[in-house]
Every structure is written in C-alpha cells, then in structure tokens.
Design goal:
Blueprint: E1 15-24, E2 28-37, E3 40-44, E4 56-59, E5 64-67, E6 72-76, E7 82-86, H1 90-120, H2 130-175, H3 180-257, H4 268-273, H5 283-290, E8 300-304, H6 307-311, H7 314-318, H8 329-336, H9 370-374, E9 392-396, H10 397-402, H11 409-416, H12 420-433, E10 444-446, E11 453-458, E12 464-472, E13 477-484, E14 488-500, E15 505-517, E16 523-526, E17 530-534, E18 542-553, E19 559-564, E20 577-583, E21 589-596, E22 600-614, E23 620-626, E24 630-634, H13 650-655, H14 671-677, H15 681-709, E25 727-731, E26 738-742, H16 746-752
Parallel strand pairs: 8-23, 9-10
Antiparallel strand pairs: 1-2, 1-7, 2-3, 3-4, 5-6, 6-7, 11-12, 12-13, 13-14, 14-15, 15-16, 15-17, 16-18, 17-18, 18-19, 19-20, 20-21, 21-22, 22-23, 22-24, 25-26
Helix pairs in contact: 1-2, 1-3, 2-3, 11-12, 14-15
Length: about 750
Amino acid sequence: MSEPKSPTPTPGDTYKGWLFKWTNYIKGYQRRWFVLSNGLLSYYRTQAEMGHTCRGTINLATANIAVEDSCNFVISNGGAQTYHLKASSEVERQRWITALELAKAKAVQMQAESDDSGDDFPAVSPNSGQGGDCRNTEIQSTLRTLNSKVEDLATCNDLIVKHGSALQRSLSELEGLRVAVDMGEKVKQVTERATLFRITSNAMINACRDFLSMAQSHSKRWQKALQTEREQRIRLEETLEQLAKQHNHLERAFRGATVLPPSFSNPALGKKGGVSGKADASDEDDDNEFFDAMEEPAEFITVPADPKYHRRSGSNISGISSETGTDDQSVNFDELSLASNPESPQPLELEPVRQRRTRIPDKPNYYLNLWSIMKNCIGKELSKIPMPVNFNEPLSMLQRLSEDLEYYELLDKAAKSHSSLEQMCYVAAFTVSSYSTTVHRTGKPFNPLLGETFELDRHRECGYRSLCEQVSHHPPAAAHHAFSEKGWTLRQEITLASKFRGKYLSIMPLGSIQCIFEKSNNHYSWKKVTTTVHNIIVGKLWIDQSGEIDVVNHKTGDRCHLKFAPYSYFSRDVPRKVTGVVTDKDGKAHYVLSGTWDEKMEFSKIMQSSKGENGTEGKQRTVYQTLKAKEIWRKNPLPEGAENMYYFSSLALTLNEPEEGVAPTDSRRRPDQRLMEEGHWDEANAEKQRLEEKQRSTRREREREAVKAASPPEEGAHPDTYQALWFEKMDDPVSGETLHIYKGGYWEAKEQGNWDMCPDVF
C-alpha cells in the first residue's frame, strides 16, 4: 500500500498525514493518522476513526516541540503528555515541524486574545441590539483571524531566515571542498536543506496568499458596513435635530400656557413686591407662585412681614437692626430703588462727551458645523485648541471682562452708602449684573495674545477708567484694574478653565474679584460661577449660569451668599433664578435678594426670622419675614437689531470702536478681530493663524534667551520669564490672595504718547 504524499502545510489550515508513534517496548513505533487543527494535534488508528474515536489530543499552545534526529521529533506539554513521533523522511519531518510551529504560534496568540477578551467585551453597550452583537462578534473573529495570519507570516519569516542561513553555510562549505569523496555527501546535505528551504518558502507564499485573499474579501464588506454606519449616523443626527426642535416647541408651548407676567423671567418675589395690586393676580395665585421654591430643597422661605412693621417709624426699625439704626432708614430704602426710578438720570441718557457708535456690521451668515470640530475636543482644555473665527464674536476676552462695568452705577451708589450691609446689597447686585450680557452671547471671545491690553476710558462720561492686560498665555490669565472718581476700585485676575463634555461646554473662571471703597475702606472679594453652553451637538445653543458665590467684606465680616440655580425643565420656578442672603459677622440675616441674572434683582429687608418646617431633604429651613421688595438692578434693553450684531449691548458695541491714542497692544488694533467685525472671515482666519504662529515663535525665542541668561538656572524654574508690563504679581494683605495688581504708569504714558516700552504683539 503506497503512502499518500502529504501536502505542503498551509498556516491556519487543517494538516493531516501518517506518522509513526512510539507505543511501548513490545510494539515499538505504530503507524497512526494525525490531524492538526485549531492548535490541537489529534491522532487515530485509521482515517475511518476520525468520525467517532480519537485516541489522544495535545494542545500545542503549551506544548514543546523538539527535533531528535533526521526523522524523529518529540511533542510534550510538560510531562502529562509526550508524543515520540517519527516521519518517513527528513523532508516529511520538516513539513510537520513547520506546520506544528505555525499552529503553536497561532494557538498562543488566540490564547492571549482570549485572556484579554474579558476587558474588551464590556465596552459593548448593553443596550445594543442582537444584530449589533453579531456584527461585533464577527468583526472580533475576523480581526483575530487576521492577527493569526500575521503571526503565521512572522513565524514563516523566522523559519526562512533560519533555513536560508543553513543553506548558505552549506553552499560555502561546498565551495571549499577539494576531495571528491566528500563532495557527494555535501551535495546530498545541500539538496536536503534546499528542499527544506523550498518547503518553508512555499508555506510563506501560501500564508501570504491566504492573508491577501482574506483582506480583500473583508475589505469590501467593511467598506459597505462603513457606508451603512455613515448613513445611520446621518439619520441619527437628523432625528436628534428633530427631537431638539420638538423639545424647543414643547418648551415654548409650556411657557405660553403658564400664567406669567409680561417678562417671563420676573421672579416670584418681585410679583409680591413691585407689581402687587394688579387685578389679574389673586392672593391664591400669589401664594402658589411665591412657594414654588418649596419643590426644591431651598435654604430659606420669605413671607410678608407683619403690617405693624410697616407702620413703625425709623427709630423703631433701628431697634431690630442696630446696623441701620437711624431715622435715615427710609431715605436709604428710597435710595436703593433709584435704579428703578424712571425719573432718576440713567447713565445711557447722559450726554456723552464723544458720540459713540450704535451699530456694527451685521454678522455674516456663514454656516459651519460646530460638531465637526468639537467632536475631536471632548475632555480637552478648550483654550489650547485652535478654533476658526466662525465661532467667535469680534471682541477679545479682555473686552468681555471690561463689560462687567456696564452697571458701574451700582458701585457708585455703594460708595455713597453709610451702612456696610446696604453696601453689600449693591455689591451683590453688581456681581449678578455682570452675567446679564451672556444670556444670548453664544460666540466665543478671542483669546488675548500675551501682552495684549485693553483700555476703557469713560472718565469724562461715567467717572471711571479701566485697564486689562493678558499676563499669562498657558494657562491664559488676564488682569483687570478699574478706578472711579466716585471712590471705588475694582480689580480682578481671571484664569479660564474650559472642558468640552460632548453635549455641553463648561467654562470655569478661576481667580478672584476685589472691590475696595475709599471712604469706608471696606474690602470685598468674590469669585465667579460656572458658565455652561448647552446643545453643542444639535439644537440652538443656550447658556446657563450655575453655582454659588460668597461675597465677603473682609473689614466688617459681612457676607452675602448668592445661589445661581441651574436650569431645570421640570421646575415650576422661574429660569435663571438667583437668591441670596446678607448676613453680618455674627451670622444674623438682614437682607434677602432675589431675581434672575438676565433680568433684574430685588432686595427685601428682614424684620424677623424663625425656623420653619423641614424641607424635602429633611433639612429645617429658615422663614424670613420681610418688608416689601424693592428693585435694586434691572438689565438695560438691547439695542435695536442686536440679534444681527452678536447680541451686543450698547456698551459692547463701543468696545471695539477705533480710538486714537490707545496703546499699540490694545485689542482695538488686533487685525484678525477687526477683519471679523468687518465681515471678512476668511481673511480673519488667515490673520489669526499668523498671529498665533508669531506668538509661538516669540515664546520660543524668549525661552532661548532665558536659558542663555540663566547661570545656572534655578531648580524647577520655567524658562519662559515673561513679565507683565502694567501689572505686578503680589500678595494682597487683606484677602490673603496672590494676584496681579496694577502698578501704575499706563495713563501717564498715554498722556505723554510714549509707548516705547510696549512689546510687538500684533
């Protein structure tokens, strides 16, 4: 019976053939049918037994393959199983050795992937459908197969190098032979090694062919699957957009169906105070609207004070609070309501020394998909990501900081207050007013360049001057100093930290704001809350402010705790609500503030306080009996056509207006910002890239010079030694904080027209 010739082994395929297996000393080697498949070597007595009886199996993943002589080899898995095998020839033995080594490499790879699969499969969403699971399983299986093919190629490559080197040595030895007797033996050896090299090369060729065939076959399927996924993504985005539109429609319908005053964000406390007496507002409605906050774990409840307090004189009121214990109490309350008195002069009604502009060019209608850029920024620091001007507004961050002074008259009134508690009410209202311009401002301000400045000189019109400077680039930090002839100074240093979370963008201002009044020497400090931009993926962008602010008077110990409630679709309360309580150093409450950060704020004098019932979270809330609420601040109306001018306020429209005599580093002179304002966005993007590259080059040069100048450099010192021009970093002895404080010289340099010390920023 002739023995069938075994085929050349193909990596990854089943390999079969006859081998002689050692049984015992009596029977010796016996002929058995061996099958190599899926990393397992099995044997049978005959081919007919393959369907029903397996005589033994060994796993090659943990097996050791050793060659004994020209035809014998041993397979062992550590002692439990050992196969002593013999092939009919050296060539046949080498075929099996090649097939076994390839199968072992594949089995080891599959075992490693099986060990790691426990970390991979949980990543699949549990909500995925059965079809998605099947697709994932199929892809994982295909990837494992391709990886095994690559391992086969690597093994074949090692074998080719091994046998090729042996063949080369034999050929070298053959060339050096002189005796004809040795020539025949060496020729036979070279022939055998050439045969082994041919077998290994054929295995390599077959493995390459299989890998190429599989890659080509699956490439078409994957391209089709990728196209399907793209189409599904487009359909999903369209569906999300439709849902966002339906959400907005339902929200508008809900607000339209809710009984609210003409200004939807008019707080409930304002209804009880400022607009009481309207015929369409019954007592029952007032009570329901007043206690809407009970749905949330509010810290306190306010109720109208007993009427006897309203009939008392000023001297009787002083018995409740010694802080305001003079007959001028009623005068102080009337003064607090000046902001809402239509007969009182408004800053915008003053005849300005200079006629300032009231319009800027309309915003071009350039469409750019925000998600196409922001999807690559999830979890990253936004200030380090270059963004096109399409997402900006034609103002820098320094100019946005200067916008905090739009309601400077609140600080003017605070400077005139004789009571520190009343002064605290003004300062708290000023704190809230700085957010009123952000409600529709979804555009991102330009990141200032290092050394960039911005001055806001309103000394002749409003009595104050303001200066901002970018004092650091990474992290971006801006210092601001403003002073008024009315007796107050405002200074702040703000560092913005921003993170993109996929659905929304969070902007966390870090740093402190301080306000000092010359007459009373009261020193206030506070921090800003978090700004969140929603609907980054689909829908209309909208902004929310949330968090808590503690305004502290470091001289007297007075404190105002402000709470910015985050927006909730299911809340019955007014959106953008702000509440606050003014307390003295002993913790006694004197005033309650309430309103919205985009509309107005009101305050109420506390006449009596008591502990009320437990709230929804089991916390006992304080009940304040207050006098009638009075308006302390109201937002100025936006100019006509503001929706086409980035929703700028009247002050914001003038911030980038060209002015003579400003520093060469002033934001008004920034070319990319000017081009954007004029509607040339393509040119603005190109100019923005030029400025950013110039800033990087300047920083590298400054670092090189700092390294050369250091002899030796201090340990841990950063090579970038930029020093601000108009501000100096120092410790504030009152608040204990470290910040950049204005060191003077700017306004004197402006009067002299001497800007030689200014760096080349633009």
